[in-house]
Amino acid sequence: MSATDPGAPPADVAADLAGQFLAISLDGLAAFGSDLRCRYWNPTMERMLGMAAVEAMGKAAPDLLPFLGDQRELSALRRALGGEEIAAHEQPFAIAGAGAGGRGFCQARYTPWRSDGGDPIGVIAILRDVTAAREVEQRAQETEARFKVMADAAPVLLWMADRDALCTFFNQTWLTFTGRTLEQEWGVGWAEGVHFEDLQPCLDMYMAAFRERRVFEMEYRLRRADGEFRWILDRGTPRFGSDGQFAGYIGSCIDITDRKNLEFELRSSVRVRDEFLSIASHELRTPLAAMQLQVENLDRMVQKRGAEHLANGRLVADLERTSGHVRRMTKLVETLLDISRLSEGRLDLDRKQMDLVALIQDVARSMRTAASAAGCELSLTAPGVAAGEWDRLRLEQVLTNLVANAIKFGAGKPIDVLVTGDEQTALVAVIDRGIGIAREQQRRIFERFERGVSARHFGGFGLGLWISRQIVEAHGGHIRVDSRPGQGATFTLELPRGGSGEE
Known about the structure:
This protein is an alpha+beta fold. It folds into 4 domains: 11-129, Beta-Lactamase (2-Layer Sandwich), CATH 3.30.450; 154-255, 2-Layer Sandwich (Beta-Lactamase); 270-343, Helix Hairpins; 352-496, 2-Layer Sandwich (Heat Shock Protein 90), CATH 3.30.565.10. It has 16 helices and 17 strands.
């Protein structure tokens, strides 16, 4: 409002309001005349400098504001007296009531004190206490300095990036590894050291993680200071500020070249082993086939001539033992072939329409002699037909293995085979009441060369369940076990029918 506005407050009211505003100002305000002696000292100045207004009145500015002892600061005050606006300068001051060690910081700004005619008649000093902000800044600087010391001492390569995905920090370990300066690595400069074959996948994953604000982990080759490319495992984690806002990423890298080399050597060793198993098993099949044929010919001769005429049955017993040895050798060779095929991903299935119940009945008949010898009664509960498209020979291999295991570990107790299911899936459960399997072993027994019991007491290669799992999963199904020690085990096969239903 202007002075002529009828709604304007009287001059004495305006002056009173101005005085109140000055009194409650958060800034310290002091007015000095042309002789630089104090003419006004507000309550905030009293609190900041511990001097009452009555004491400050008439005193020279350098006596009231110790930092004016700096000739440059005093010169700035005099320039304001001449009519110049002086920008804020940060200055130290003694905090009132804090003793000799109490020290604060303020921003001092000077502006001319002008008469009604606009002529400079003095200078106004405006002091804003920035001690708290300075302490926060100092603590942040100390924290950053400690972080840098710890980061540089860390044995891993560390980096940080801002919200724009540009890197702003690399620790000394990184710089020593790459042999480059911080300026060279800054932003996306670090990517210059990534192997050209890994660069695009590396950048794609890096930027995708930034967009999604998620943890990422990637492997790439990074050029070392000596020019050698080393495999690096890089793990990045998003950072968030105290307000919950995304602040960028922090990441750590370790050199995994030795591990990668070891993995390569192991894969090479496994490949050589699998090649050997494949060759050896194929080579063994030929003499075994010939031996099996000779045993079958001898068996037919014995059946033709009659066992009573052949040295009181000794030849028959020898023939049975030889036939058993050939069967075991053949099974071992087939197992070796399966290992070779599975390792190479070559488990081919010959899917045909078949009856699962009929297959299980055949398996049960072939295993009854072994079950009787172990004192196990083998029973089958199933619908009339359970049709589906499966590989008969492969499923026979799985079911024979499960029933043989039930006999081996069934402790001479009954064994049940149950067939159930619906139009989409057939379920087969092989249930024994033997020694059982501990919970912590139940997942492991389906792995290669793993057993739930001692091989010294029960024998075996630890491959049967692994091969069975591979076969079932190749059919799109699952195999699982439910067991407790001393309470037997239930192995369940879940097999998709392949579009067939029960008849």
